[in-house]
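In response to reviewer comment 3 from the previous cycle, which asked for concrete evidence that the modeling workflow produces usable outputs, we include below a single protein chain processed end to end. The sequence was submitted unchanged, and the resulting structure tokens are shown without manual editing.
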Amino acid sequence: MYSAFLFSAINNPLHGAQDMSRCAVLRLGPINLNQPKPAALNAETTGPMVLALMMHGWGEGGLGFKQQFDRFAEALQKGGHDKRGQDTYGTLLACAAILLGDDLAAAMDTHLDPNEERWWTENFTADSLPEVEDAKPNYRQCVDRILTAPVRAWRNSSRNTIGQAIADSRTTDDDGHAREPDYTYVQARRDITIAGFGLFNTREIVAPVMRKNSIKLAEALQQFGLEDSKLVLAVPNQSVKVAEHLEGSDWQHGAWKDALRQCPVPGVMITNSEITRLTIDGTQTRCTLIVLDRYHEAPEK
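The workflow returned the following structure tokens.
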């Protein structure tokens, strides 16, 4: 009988939600060294016996499997699972129920026997799964990587991430009270430019439009849905430095532009061509603008 397992490891090698949702991972508890050694299985006969049980439980035209699958899929749906979750875990549970049968399933307290579907609804909710619990939208993963990845060019600085530089330069604390930062906006802007990004105030973003159209600040801000004196992080759509900053990530080869634009919350990402051509590191380049306060206030999922 060949093992159905692909690999084993102390730590789970799967990290991405897209990988974890496609594999069944068994988390085994510590071995009780004092328990009796289980009887040896005959490899020549065990496999065919398991196969025979599965074929018998499958039923005519797969009816037996369908009945088992439908009851578990309904329970999983009530627990918040989408179609993929129902298909993935419903199939596993249906196969386990077929293999064990009602009597053995009850004796082993597996909650697989009939009329126990509610247990799976209550104890196997979608939110309890690691791939769902820790999952973030692609755009948020990308922004978090930009803000928290160490900047190589700042090796000798007391700050090593863009997020830290922005936080240290703020003139208000978490409660909205004024503060005198040791690290100014001008210094943060200079350092972030060295990293290949841009830090701007919304007034600076709309200033060219104000000059071109001879309009006031309030009108310009309203035109682009911006608030006064808010910080904006400009991410060049094409940049060697940004690619280096995102090295080792899913976005390092230019995918960050599309990832940022996947944000579903209006006003967080600004892509209007009238205000997104900015000077970064001495060169004018087209950017995607992240309105930082709105980003941090947006739903996490």
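The radius of gyration is 28 Å. We consider this sufficient to address the reviewer's concern, and the full set will be provided in the supplementary archive.
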